[in-house]
Design brief:
The complex is a heterodimer. Chain A is mainly alpha-helical. Chain A is built from two helices and no strands. In chain A, α1 runs antiparallel to α2. The longest helix of chain A has 25 residues. Chain A is rod-shaped. By secondary structure, chain B is an all-alpha fold. Chain B has a single domain, classed as Sodium/glucose cotransporter (Up-down Bundle), CATH 1.20.1730. The chains are: A mainly alpha, B mainly alpha.
Chain lengths: ~70, ~575
């Protein structure tokens, strides 16, 4: 049976990748100043997306189907 | 009188980009995929209604917490934090942690070893059929109504935040829940609740991080709140000496005796919506550890709920207003604070994740309601009262059909609320009537062997009726609040606390008096149901750090320290 943690890994990984690249796009093509969110200069999407990607990848690897884990 | 569901709809708060929509769509695809994957594992009653009783402590614990962490809960309490300050944290700390630890160490062994399918099922074993019937019928009725009320409220939020059509929100979310719960039963609901737990934290944790950065740290945030509101907005206990000294209009006795000792104990230990998750644990140790794990995480939920409300109070340029004022003026209400903070800090991608967290919270709450309703209907109403000779396969089919019907009744309720907005207030009030007396009945049943069937039944009935009576009294004559809550300065929340306290006491007194006047059950019949007559199963010979009582102690110490820090 596929572990619930694997599904969570998939969710974090896919969302993390999407957010990371959306953030990178905004780094290269920043929106007009009036359309920017507060603290835009911190580029939260990039590091938050990267963090989610790493955690998701670890979960996917560790709980991949076929492992004997809950 | 027909009241339109919104007088003035303000312009939508946010616009989703393509990547945001992709994240939302991916969430729907994933929960449906989980439902289809688990459809082959819900063929027996034990699988469909109890998830096979094979959940680990972590899965059961996170699901237990998640079933309570709905989207309206998140937005409502963030709004309360904006309105009342840090006092709202009491509903997460003293209004939850002691009750969760009590459930783990005292009550769970009885639920678990009785092998009951539900809380009404325990009442049947302890007090007989009448007590079960009152509890089961009221719970089933209120659960689907509450689900409908929440569905409408969430669809309205999606309309305000995203501009989505209200019918679209209701039907897409409810049909998705119907599909995955019908296919996979409780296991599917639990899996999706754990997924939701992670999405909520991933989607909401950035707000306090960025908010504290913008405010200049906790010390500067407190200064800004003191300037814009009052110093009492950042103290948990120091303003609770009297009703008039804090923004909530309540005193310490209402919080300690009403909220902590009755309402929270009632909700966390007898509301089947949350207890069902723990009953699905694989063994007694997991069943005891699960609420402790839930309590550990519950202590930190204020980070993503209360703190954003406080930060909003300090940094948002506009002043938020009560819902009633917002409906007339089109201004933003207190309940909009979380979406407003989301829009303030989250760009493309992060915004989609935040919105997904809200949708996931709503759907998981609805799945919790529907799965609990299905179990109580099938095992506590249909089987004992309508058809007691069905096969296991028959009851599973009944469960699947009940899931669909429960969702449809919820949808119907949502449309009813759309036409008659005042129904929402009545339904929410109705739900609170049953919690406190039910806790009185269950706790006396577990701890006092002399409690009898007639005592339990009449105590539950009188406690519930007294609660309804007090509510109707204040509704008819608002000045009566000074008698119910013991102060002319008391506000609405104080009424809830004291109403619960009095109805609990009525239940206890009636149960004791009637029990002493009726014939007790023989001790042999109460084995496994009452303390003192039951050998509570041991968790086995394991190291100290693996014992539930050790972790309950750790959670208790952290809870105590947090209250001192924010005194």
């Amino acid at each position: 049976m596929i572990s619930i943690w694997f599904f969570i890994g998939i969710s974090l990984l896919v969302n993390g990748v999407l957010i990371f690249f959306a953030g990178l796009y905004e780094v290269w093509h920043p929106p007009a100043p009036e359309a920017q969110v507060q603290l835009f200069s911190l580029h939260a999407s990039v590091w938050w997306g990267a963090l989610m990607t790493v955690i998701g990848a670890v979960y996917c690897y560790h709980f991949k189907p076929g492992q004997k884990k809950a | 009188m027909t009241i339109p569901y919104a007088f003035v709809v303000p312009a939508r708060l946010v616009h989703l980009s393509a990547v945001d929509v992709a994240i939302v769509v991916f969430y729907f695809a994933l929960v449906l995929a989980i439902g289809f994957y688990l459809r082959g594992r819900a063929n027996t009653g034990e699988d469909f209604f109890m998830a096979g009783r094979e959940m680990t402590a972590w899965v059961a614990g996170l699901s237990f917490l998640s079933a309570n962490l709905g989207a309206l809960e998140l937005m409502g309490w963030a709004g309360s934090a904006y309105q009342y300050g840090i006092l709202a944290t009491h509903w997460y700390w003293i209004g939850a942690i002691p009750a969760m630890l009590f459930l783990a160490l005292v009550m769970m062994p009885f639920y678990y070893i009785s092998k009951t399918h539900s809380v009404p099922g325990y009442l049947k074993l302890r007090f007989g059929e009448p007590a079960r019937a009152v509890s089961a019928v009221s719970f089933a009725f209120m659960t689907v109504l509450m689900s409908g009320v929440n569905m409408f409220a969430m669809a309205k939020v999606m309309q305000i935040v995203l501009g989505w059509d209200i019918n679209f929100s209701i039907w897409v979310s409810s049909l998705t829940v119907a599909v995955y719960v019908t296919l996979g039963g409780l296991r599917s609901a639990i899996f999706n609740e754990v997924l939701q737990f992670f999405l909520i934290w991933a989607g909401a944790l950035l707000i306090p991080i960025l908010g504290l950065y913008e405010a200049g740290g906790w010390s500067n945030l407190k200064l800004q709140i003191a300037q814009r509101a009052s110093d009492q907005y950042v103290h948990l206990w120091s303003g609770l000496g009297s009703f008039s000294n804090n923004p909530m209009g309540i005193n310490w006795a209402g919080i300690v005796f009403g909220l902590a000792a009755v309402i929270s104990m009632g909700y966390w230990t007898t509301d089947f919506l949350v207890v069902q998750r723990i009953l699905a644990a694989k063994d007694i140790r997991s069943a005891e550890l699960a609420p402790i794990i839930g309590a550990g995480f519950k202590m930190f939920v204020p980070l993503i709920v209360i703190l954003p409300g406080l930060i909003g109070l300090a940094v948002l340029p506009m002043k938020l207003v009560p819902e009633s004022v917002a409906a007339v003026t089109g201004a933003h209400s207190y309940n909009d604070v979380l979406p407003l903070m989301l829009a303030r800090y989250c760009g493309p991608g992060l915004l989609g994740l935040g919105i997904t967290a809200l949708i996931a919270g709503f759907m998981s709450g609805m799945a919790g309601n529907v799965s609990a309703f299905t179990t109580v209907w099938t095992y506590d109403i249909y089987r004992p009262l309508i058809n007691s000779k069905g096969t296991d396969h028959h009851y599973v089919n009944m469960g699947r059909w009940t899931t669909v019907i429960g969702v449809l009744i919820s949808v119907g309720t949502a449309y009813l609320v759309m036409q008659f907005a005042s129904i929402m207030d009545y339904v929410q009030a109705l739900f609170s009537f049953f919690i406190a007396p039910l806790f009185g009945t269950v706790i006396l049943g577990m701890l006092w062997k002399r409690a009898t069937g007639p005592g339990g039944f009449l105590g539950l009935l009188c406690g519930t009726l007294s609660s309804i009576g007090m509510w109707a009294w204040v509704k008819a004559d608002p000045t009566a609040l000074r008698y119910v809550a013991l102060s002319p300065h008391a506000k609405a929340l104080a009424q809830d606390m004291y109403q619960a306290l009095w109805s609990f006491l009525v239940c206890i007194i009636v149960t004791v008096v009637v029990s002493l006047a009726t014939k007790p059950r023989p001790d042999a019949e109460l084995t496994g149901l009452v303390y003192g007559l039951t050998a509570v199963p041991s968790v086995g010979t394991i190291p100290l750090y693996e014992k539930p009582v050790f972790w309950a102690g750790v959670v208790g110490v952290v809870f105590f320290v947090l209250n001192i820090i924010f005194w």
